[in-house]
């Protein structure tokens, strides 16, 4: 399963929303609230074995499915490189 | 409106001009600390049959809080359908309410916090101290902050 | 007696008395709250103008407590408590609001900025049995229901501590701290400028 499918699967299962496209803003479409965002962060850390720093929890990294996927892939590359 | 054979122990505070409906055989046990039922203008609190609420629990409705039949709310849990203050900007504006539903047979542990948008489905268990603001599927146990499913009931 | 049976002038008088009572009740409560605050906080070194306590509180001061202007302590099912131990400092800025059941305890130093809001059952203590370190809360912070702030924590201006969180590390300004232990995320990630 691709990273995109795993993350989308988690969002659909956890927040009971599936009517969203890859570029929809979670915040503006009201898909995920603040508690949900914490759950998403915990899921990313556990499932992808990456560590998110507090300063990385910003809209540029996490506010849509495509941003999350790009961010996770970048983090995985960085951890592999080091 | 109150159904048949309610039991009230200790103190129960009822505030606000909103609507409060109580089903049959409801138990409100305010001996540890007062129970607070706060229905503001236009808000409603509906307690189903056989609901048990323990002391110190606080329910605040600006729009709608529904507690299903046979559900139990533990001591000092907080149930609110409005955050009361926005996260950013003018803190004195009031954000929109989101209806809150606790379905039949749910157990909510003490000190749990149910925020706007919570929908705990039938037979689920909320561990003590959990903070929730989303839909929780039926018959699971959730705990922690942020909440995680810590047990799933095996079917059959 | 049924109000309809009364002659018209008397019912109108009663209605006016009722109106008057309703308009006076908040003012009477306010007067009582101001007087209660003056009595409760009599041992404090500084107390600002218009400090009101709308319910009973547990107050103990063996150190130095400074309260700003226009503070509000709301009453409720549990009394709030303010405790300042010997040699400690507790400083609260102006226009801060406290809901019921808030517990503030200072063994060395707790400082709270202006216009902060503390929801019910918030606990703030600068000693937890292992460590003792001062706590600083900057201006315009909102600490939501049931949150706990651990010793040595600094919460930045305009930040929000979410309900039920346990804050063990510093929170930068304009941040939402949430969870147990709390993690910090940008408020921009979870809130539009206008509201929640």
If you had to describe this structure to a student in words, what would you say it looks like?
The complex is a heterotrimer of chains A (82), B (156) and C (196). By secondary structure, chain A is an all-alpha fold. Chain A contains 4 helices and no strands. Chain A has helices at residues 3-15, 34-48, 59-62, 65-81. In chain A, helix 1 runs antiparallel to helix 2 and helix 1 crosses helix 4 (65-81). The longest helix of chain A is centred in the C-terminal third of the chain and has 17 residues, at 65-81. The model of chain A has no long low-confidence stretch (mean pLDDT 90). Helix content of chain B is 0%, strand content 45%. Chain B has a single domain (7-152), classed as UDP N-Acetylglucosamine Acyltransferase, domain 1 (3 Solenoid). In chain B, a hairpin with a 4-residue loop joins strand 17 and strand 18. Chain B has no helices and 18 strands. An 8-stranded mixed sheet of chain C has the order 2-5-8-11-14-17-19-20. A 6-stranded parallel sheet of chain C has the order 1-4-7-10-13-16, with no helix packed on it. A 6-stranded parallel sheet of chain C has the order 3-6-9-12-15-18, with no helix packed on it. In chain C, a hairpin with a 4-residue loop joins strand 19 (175-178) and strand 20 (183-186). Chain C is globular and about 70 Å long. The N and C termini of chain C lie far apart (50 Å). Chains in contact: A-B, A-C, B-C. At the B-C interface, strand 3 of B face loops of C.
Set out the fold topology.
The complex is a heterotrimer of chains A (82), B (156) and C (196).
Chain A: H1 3-15, H2 34-48, H3 59-62, H4 65-81
Chain B: E1 7-15, E2 19-22, E3 27-39, E4 44-47, E5 52-54, E6 58-61, E7 64-67, E8 72-73, E9 78-80, E10 100-102, E11 107-108, E12 113-114, E13 119-120, E14 125-126, E15 131-132, E16 135-136, E17 140-143, E18 148-152
Chain C: H1 8-40, E1 46-47, E2 52-53, E3 57-61, E4 64-67, E5 72-73, E6 80-84, E7 89-92, E8 97-98, E9 103-106, E10 109-112, E11 117-118, E12 123-125, E13 135-137, E14 142-143, E15 148-149, E16 154-155, E17 160-161, E18 166-167, E19 175-178, E20 183-186, H2 187-190
